[in-house]
Amino acid sequence: MKKLYLVKPLPIGVINPLIYGHFSEHIGGVFYDGIWVGEDSSVPNIHGFRKSLVEAFKAVRPSVLRWPGGCFAETYDWRDGIGPRGNRPTRINWWYQNDGRMEPNKIGTHEFVEFCRLVGAEPYIAANITSTTPLDIRDWIDYCNSPKGSTEYAKLREANGSPEPLNVKYWGVGNECWGGGGNMEPEIYAHEYRKYAMIMRNSAPGLELFACGPNANGWHWTERFLRVFDTSSRIMNGYSVHYYCGASGGCLDFTNEQFYHLLSKASFMNHIVNQTWNLVCGFNCQNQCPLVVDEWGCWHPGGSGPTKGYNLFEQQSTMRDALVTALTLNIFNNNCEKVKMANAAQLVNNLHCLFLANKENFIVTPTYHVYDMYKEHQGATAIKTAFEQETITYKNPDNQREEKLAKLSVSASVKDDALLLTVANLSLTDAEDLELESVGMTLGNDADITILRNDDVHAHNTFDAPDAVTPIQKTTKADVIQVPPASVVTARIKLQ
């Protein structure tokens, strides 16, 4: 039995609800036959949005939703997505060379914001600075946020059905500018950021602007960007970081070594967060650069999803992906004084998705269940945990070198006189009994337990078997929490 200390007098900080955010790009089946089925569809819908998805997504309390990309944003003109849908132009999608699909622009600014309102999320727009001018983005902000009747764009918005402002607060100043977003050098992007941010900030009050940070642990990008940014007026409210733990084996076909290797890659997020934050602190930019991990998740080879490759990058979500999700969210909780926002990529029919949908079919994935289990962390105060950590030894399947992986991932928070403890057991074979020892608070006698696991870590939900991986709930004594192998466990305990 392992003793787990829960130390309330050592709060880490408040877990920003924005950490429990999501990402929706115009790629593959994310929007078309995913989120959007159309108002005339036989599939039950709310103003064209898949009703089952709206209801399930709303239930996990999504805080923010990023759009329209990703890489799709690099050539997106917002004017293509306004006005009567029948009059909107069809354009080449950024991903056309991958799947041959054009972009019909049935989903534009109004539809995106309406979807956000339906599910209770704040809209976050990734602005295209690769192929548009600062004036183009200024005009988009004007269209979204200017008061009714105040400008020509506000009048145009009203003519298109939205008299009142859309109130889009969060704006990304470019996307992956080290890659598809212009393939820039960091110094060049720093100057571009300063130019665009100055115009954008002057377009509407209360905006929060996020700069493009590194790919994974690209410390050189951060260091070189901040050297230039440090001399500017520091118009910034967040610093974006992207990290995908790449494939280890197939999405559904993986060995035990590949299972551990992917989890080890996921745990690297902790290093990325702390390394990037240390550089931010070195330039004394903590106030301007809270971290915004606005793309993260597993990136497996495509083709494992229901459409068998028709939807680009569509993949299943197994218990292994659920563990990656739990591990990553625990990392964000435990670094909540550094991380302001995090958006899992992507929402449906794609990478690391919460949902799979096709025509009348719709299911939630194991990843979805983790978000549901963790949602009470939002707005809670994260507290320190302490325990004797053991490691798992495995062979890296790429080079056969012996490596180690921490066995347990844990985070805890307090809100509304209750403790939420979330644990991911990464061991395929060993259960853990955690004896809780609280410091600075008194735990109640009972714990409401939720367990997500399956005897087979390859298990996943399908249209034919939608509940192959689903959580079970029970009430136990709060003194000892049992955590089965390869499982995600949450315990909610009232405080006395």
Tag the structure with descriptive keywords.
globular, Immunoglobulin-like, single chain, 9-stranded mixed β-sheet, alpha/beta, TIM Barrel, 496 residues, 2 domains
Q: Could you describe the 3D structure shown?
A:
The protein is α/β, with parallel strands linked by helices and 496 residues long. The protein folds into 2 domains: 2-8 and 383-495, Sandwich (Immunoglobulin-like), CATH 2.60.40; 17-378, Alpha-Beta Barrel (TIM Barrel). Helices cover 25% and strands 30% of the residues. The protein has 11 helices and 25 strands. It has helices spanning 51-59, 96-99, 109-119, 134-145, 152-159, 186-201, 219-229, 256-267, 269-282, 319-334, 366-374; strands spanning 2-14, 21-23, 45-46, 49-50, 64-67, 91-92, 102-103, 122-127, 170-173, 208-215, 238-246, 291-299, 339-344, 355-358, 361-364, 381-386, 391-395, 402-406, 408-415, 418-425, 432-439, 443-452, 472-477, 480-483, 487-495. It has a 9-stranded mixed sheet. The chain has an 8-stranded parallel beta barrel with strand order 2-5-8-9-10-11-12-13, surrounded by 6 helices. A two-stranded antiparallel sheet has the order 3-4. Strand 9 (170-173), helix 6 and strand 10 form a beta-alpha-beta unit. Helix 4 runs parallel beside helix 6 (186-201), helix 6 (186-201) packs across helix 7 (219-229) and helix 7 (219-229) runs parallel beside helix 9 (269-282). The chain is globular. The two termini are 25 Å apart. The mean pLDDT is 97.
